Amino acid sequence: MARYAVIHGGVVQNHALADDVFAAAQGWVPAGDSQVGDRWDGHAFVPAPADLDALKAAKNDEINAARLAANFSHFEHAGKQIACDQLSRSDIDGTNGFVALYGALPPGWPGGWKAIDNTYVAIADVAAWKAFYASMFAAGNANFAHAQALKEALAAAATAEEVAAIGWGMEAP
């Protein structure tokens, strides 16, 4: 008994175990390392082409996830890295809401924001707060622009290899 490829219309539909005589009578060929969906050209198996649309959809999701992760990691302000995880972002947005409503920093304001290295960035007044918040916005906007550039490259990709080569860490074309 050996493993054979069951082929219809030049495409491997299934695999079967059979003896040589039965397999030959059915028109089956030795399966080798073929997979269901591979093409049979009469001499060799050719891997099935990748579903480019499915690969592009998965890569688009990967780009979106990378942008979200970047937005919720950190941003630079006054030469310091500022945490922008979900908790930190909630605190930043809450403070910004207060500043937007009242035009002043909240009561008990500590005079700055703690950076990732546990030092403080001075934020003494509303103008300094606006600059701080603008730094966060700029980082998010840069992440958006990078994602859009990657998606433009993705739209232009014509092969599975071109799709696979696109990733968050690359320079946008």
TrEMBL record:
Name this polypeptide is given: DUF4376 domain-containing protein
InterPro entries, A to Z: DUF4376 (IPR025484)
Q: Which residues form the DUF4376 domain?
A: 55-165
Q: Which organism is it from?
A: Oryzisolibacter propanilivorax
Against Pfam families, the record matches this protein to: DUF4376
